[in-house]
Amino acid sequence: MKAETMSDTMAPEKRFDDDPNEKDGLGESLGIVRTLYMDGEAGRAAIECQAEMRMCHSGGVVQGGFVTGWIDAAMARAAMAATNFEMTPMTLEIKVSFFAPAMPGLLVAEAWIERKGRSTIFLEGNLKNAEGAVVAKATSTVRMMPLIDMSSGKMEKRKK
């Protein structure tokens, strides 16, 4: 299911944004505001991001690594939702095309599965500005791996 506007949301199957037991330091650093939706059946997801001046270089343009990170985060949510959150994506490659500068403000990264194999997923995604214009597009190939539990201080396969 696709959100029609930035304010339309669906409750994700799994919360990435506000679980008090799991702080998402990476999401915080990236300026991810919330997950708009995750649809495992359709293999789609979207997140809302807040671009700030601290993320910009010359002329107030958001640095490309943040743009890439936002689309990558949406693609990861789409892949994880499609595996019922039993697997995590490990990026094998990612390609981003930048069409227009991303400026400070609210942005939406959308992602979808283009093709899914047994252990490899091909994803696509984009980043839209507040007006809904696509400012960047990306493709990614990921290998799905079992979730790892680091809570004990060592890497262990996560128990259900």
Provide a descriptive summary of the structure in words.
This protein has about 160 residues and is α+β, with helices and mostly antiparallel strands. The protein is built from two helices and ten strands, in the order αββββαββββββ. It has helices at about 25-30, 65-80, and strands at about 30-40, 45-50, 55, 60, 85-100, 105-115, 120-130, 135-145, 150, 155. A hairpin with a 5-residue loop joins strand 7 (about 120-130) and strand 8. The model is unreliable at about 1-15 (pLDDT under 50).
How would you sum up this structure in a few lines?
This protein has two helices and ten strands, in the order αββββαββββββ. The protein is α+β, with helices and mostly antiparallel strands and 160 residues long.
**What is the string of SSEs from the N terminus onward?**
HEEEEHEEEEEE
* Main pleated sheet: 6 strands, antiparallel
Helix content: 10-25%
The N- and C-terminal alpha carbons lie at a distance of 27 Å
- DSSP summary: helix tally: 2
Say how many strands there are.
Answer: 10
Mean pLDDT: 85
- Beta content: 35-45%
Shape: globular
Low-pLDDT parts are 1-15
The largest beta-sheet arranges its strands as 1-2-6-7-8-5
* Class by alpha and beta content: alpha+beta
Write down the Rg: 15 Å
Fold topology:
Elements: H1 25-30, E1 32-39, E2 44-51, E3 56-57, E4 61-62, H2 64-82, E5 87-98, E6 105-116, E7 120-128, E8 134-146, E9 148-149, E10 156-157
Antiparallel strand pairs: 1-2, 2-6, 3-4, 5-8, 6-7, 7-8, 9-10
Task: Spell out the key features of this protein.
160 residues; alpha+beta; six-stranded antiparallel sheet; two-stranded antiparallel sheet; 2 helices; 16% helix; disordered N terminus
